[in-house]
TrEMBL record:
Domain named EF-hand: residues: 115-150
Record keyword Repeat present: yes
CDD domains according to UniProt: EFh
The protein's name: EF-hand calcium-binding domain-containing protein 2
SUPFAM superfamilies tied to this protein: EF-hand
Length: 187
């Protein structure tokens, strides 16, 4: 009788260990797939700014790349991120591979991730005091230059290109949020 119990206990331990090994491998495969997907997103974004494959990107595009990957650190955090990849403070370009490694770390931990759709809608609702559901280009520029972290002239130009509807010359937050989330989910 005791022999049967011992044999059954040994079997259950053996199968338990096997299940744990399988679960561990599945988790590892899932993690590797996540890292590969993150690397693909980063490489796709970098390709626009390094079309010749030189492995170097102009420093001016650092913030744009970080934002394109749906990360929104504040200015101090952005400066810290840039310093981690920049070897020479006088260099006008940064290395793609260093950027990629840094962004894999950032994105795999969901660090600096953008807000949810509900949070963004609530924030824009506070700014939309007239409850129009949109901002004129001038109103939008005024907001970008007067509250929160102040945008540089280049950042304003980039933001306007991405947000202002050329036909109506307005910024519609709901459309922007939708496009932002669709873009984030397809990458």
């Amino acid at each position: 009788m005791d022999f049967k119990k011992a044999k059954n206990r040994k079997k259950s331990t053996k199968f338990g260990r096997r299940n744990t090994d399988i679960a561990s491998r599945m988790s590892q495969d899932s993690t590797e797939a996540k890292f590969m997907k993150i690397q693909e997103r980063i490489k796709a974004s970098l390709g626009v700014y390094d079309p010749d494959g030189t492995g170097l990107v102009d420093n001016r595009y650092f913030k744009t790349l970080v934002y394109a990957l749906h990360r929104v650190p504040n200015n101090n955090q952005m400066d810290d991120m840039f310093e981690t990849i920049q070897e020479d403070k006088n260099a006008e370009q940064f290395f793609v591979d260093k950027f990629e490694k840094m962004m894999v770390r950032v994105m795999s931990t969901d660090r600096y991730k953008s807000s949810s759709a509900k949070e963004l809608e609530a924030a824009f609702a506070v700014l939309d005091v007239d409850k129009k559901g949109y901002f004129t280009a001038d109103e939008w520029i005024a907001l970008l230059t007067s509250s929160g972290e102040i945008f540089t002239e280049d950042e304003i130009k980039e933001t306007l290109k991405m947000t202002i509807d050329p036909e109506t010359e307005t910024f519609v937050p709901s459309t922007y949020i939708h496009n932002l989330l669709v873009d984030e989910n397809t990458h």
